[in-house]
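Q: Sequence in, structure out?
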Amino acid sequence: MFRRRIESGHWPSGSQIPTIDDLAAEFGVARATIRQSLGILSGEGLVASFRAKGTFVTEKMPQPLWCEVTTDWNGLLMNRDGATIKVLSDYPSIAAPFVQEPVGIVQPQYRYLRRLHSRNDDPYMLADIYIDGKLASKLPPASFAEETAMRLAAKLPGIKITEARQRLTIGTADVETAELLQIPLNAPICHVNRFAVDQRGRLVLMALGCYRGDVVRMDIKLR
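A: Exactly. Output:
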């Protein structure tokens, strides 16, 4: 509750917060509980206590790194403002992974890329990208660290994307995912799998993404 008051601006930066007695009376808990909660915020550098003066908010809570999961084709082609992509792995030819309910005709070989997406040095998505092995070599090498997965599909020479699908499920972070996304083990994550099929029915691209559960957001207009 105290953290939300700082985050929302209810307790602005530099302001004095109510006394321990006042907060204990407001929330109906023991003074020791309030003191413990404020101690946690103090340890994080969000509040500071001064003898004979009181407790003050020292800084604003960092704004959440909201990451909108786009639900339209044009949105999937756009890079996020301030986002960077780091290629962690790049294998020119591997077999397609097992995917339940695949879309299109799976090809014999794919170029595989593991990429970490960040904004302001904060990682928000880990993605495994599979691009048709015969077509991937026709893309500019720099594009693998610059373009969204669906833009890579759209830029494949001589290819027209006739079907694109996005599938979202909720899971938890394993050891490797937790380390790369800088979240606790078993923290909630959002799996977003994207598929692109060309005019011949071939599955030319798969993007198997894992978003941090604490930053992902989906906004769908219903009317």
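The mean pLDDT is 89.
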